[in-house]
Amino acid sequence: MVGLRQSHAFHTDTTRQGQQLSPSERERLLKPYLPREPNQSRTSNPKSNGPFHHRQRVRPAMRHLIHSLLFSIIHIVFSTLIRIRQIYHALLDRAFAVLYYHHRTPELIHRDVKNLSRIPKHLSVILDLPPEGGKKDALETLLNDACELAAWSASAGVPMLSIYERTGILKSSLPHLHRRISRTLISYYGATSPSKPTISLRSPNLPSYSPPHTPELTNGTNGTHTADSPHHLTILLLDATDGRQTIVDLTKTLAEMSQHGKLSPSDISQELIDAEISESVMGEPDLLILFGDRVVLEGYPPWQVRLTEIFYAQDNNAGVGYQVFLRALYKYAKAEFRLGR
Amino acid sequence: MATTNASLRRWLFALPPVEFLLQQLRETVIGALRCGPIPEHVAFVMDGNRRWARRSKVETVEGHNMGFEALARILEVCYKSGVRVVTIYAFSIENFKRSRYEVDGLMDMAKTKLVQLSQHGELLDRYGACVKILGDKSLMREDVQEQMERAVEMTKHNDSAVLNVCFPYTGREEICHSVQETVREFSKPEPSQRPPLKRPFSETHIQRNILSRQLPAVAEEDQTTPPLKDTHSSSDNDSASMSEHDLDSSTLHPASSQTSHSTSPVLKPTQTKRSASLPDPETITSETITKHTYTPDAPPLDLLVRTSGVHRLSDFMLWQCHENTEIRFLECLWPEFDLWNFLPVLLEWQWRQKKIIEQGRGGGLKTA
User: Fold this and answer.
1) Which residues form the domain of A25?
2) Known catalytic residue: B47?
3) pLDDT tens, A298-316?
4) What is the pLDDT of residues A151-163, one digit of tens each?
5) Nearest by CB to B187, which of A250, A255, A273?
6) H-helix or E-strand containing A129?
7) Same domain? A203 vs A300
8) Is A273's Cβ below 8 Å from some Cβ in B?
9) How far is C-alpha A324 from the chain's CA centre?
10) pLDDT over 90, % of chain B
11) C-alpha distances in Å from residue A63, one per residue of A71, B27, B34, B339, B347
């Protein structure tokens, strides 16, 4: 970084005396701050080819030693800092988790979000298949999380929830998931409550199990579909193939059409792609919640995340939690999330 | 009070010994950072210039100017610490919707900086950095375009570091553009049009070879027919050249009718060739699309930093960052961004990288 005097000179393009800087003067100003010339030019220097040519050996070695020492020190200090931060966040999360708990009561959830100025119309979450434990346990955790999220979203009044899971294991157990979600909703609302939300579960590449079947099923299980029109929640299951692969597939189709002369490449516009992709997969989510401890999208559909608000809880290792969900909604509504309701 | 404080601080930092020590400290810290893993490709969303200007009660354009200085500082840090590719979001296509005054100011600034850059080309060579402009350049003013071309041209021989400037850019435009380019590539017949991309052997040539070997007795005039038929298939999409083809075939027909026995074996392969000369759309993969993005040969994006506390991508690097990129949202505004804000990000990245390597080793041991 150049000194303040020089940066001032660059900024105004004049010297202190108020004269215009010439390119050569500018270079002179910068000279001391530049890295050394690349080595090639030095070896080509004819003087240094003699037998008594002196090359710096000790100083670079010393410098390297100092740097690696400093590197270790910085990292030791920094990792303790990270640990402290992690502990702090874990404690905070615990506190939030105690203060804000849903108790499987939709009214409580409703009360938590009542004062928010806006609720996302399309909420999206990224779930991870937990690496530890057997495959069955992992799937069980995942199903559980998905069910809870569905219930919270329904209670909070979110009309659309999309669940992204990279491997697609959730997608493949779609009928099972539907049964589980219905059961979870019953445990939240009670089996015969008229306000129990209806759900429909679908997935972009599995058209077989989709809306026409699901409302029947929910009606069949509770049988009290009144004119009160309970909240309807659409759940969309996504996996890695709905991201890049969709765009690749679209390109394939477009290429084929172009080969048959049905469209020229210049006809391809953002509107066309957007229309096709929103129809086959989904539109843009308003809010994306990550339950990991850092923001990595893991192949989440790229076209749709463009303006999505991304929320993650720093150092969250507890997985899917109600307080994270709630904090995301607060953040989205630009409301302050405080300790204590 | 605040102003006296600021001027005191400025005076202090301008003292030669203090300046020297700060400089040494920076160099040492960067040198120390180099000892660990360093991301190869870092992207920045330079957000917060306007807010900074509003907060410090200066003009918006001045805020952008300070933003540029912050950029210069951070580029120095990146290149000195060994980052190979830096991508910056300088101007979004959406930004054209801002006030005309501000857009013009930004354009003027870009032009000034580019002119300065081309005046000091050899200084950039010290860093071995080349400049690339990503985006739809046709939306720019012409004089700016000219300077962009010049800067790119001047630095293109450097290969140790790359600075990608996304100038009028949005991620969707990029995806759309690369889809378009892919479609264009795949609706063009393969042979000889794109020699550097494809193998030196053309399929039609080989087919012709086989044919000529299968039909050694056919007269010479038949050997001229397949290539002519071939031009027919290549210009298939082009309605303008259809009339030409019609002329060709009309001149051909008398010739083929003369040697009626040879037409059927020749016609048959041309029909299969019709689809074969065009590349199969099924071979399109995500790599094909990546190849047509604005960053075809850049290493995968390791780190994306967005300043000013907005937790969105705002249409930046959509195709590149949705896989394994770590995205960091920082609270500070871009003009305030410096080594000291960037250092924790880099350190945490290094720390995670180390953990991932350790885990990988642990996992490897477990399975072994």
Assistant:
1) 1-32
2) yes
3) 899 999 999 999 999 888 8
4) 999 999 999 999 9
5) A255
6) none
7) yes
8) yes
9) 13
10) 24
11) 12, 11, 12, 20, 20
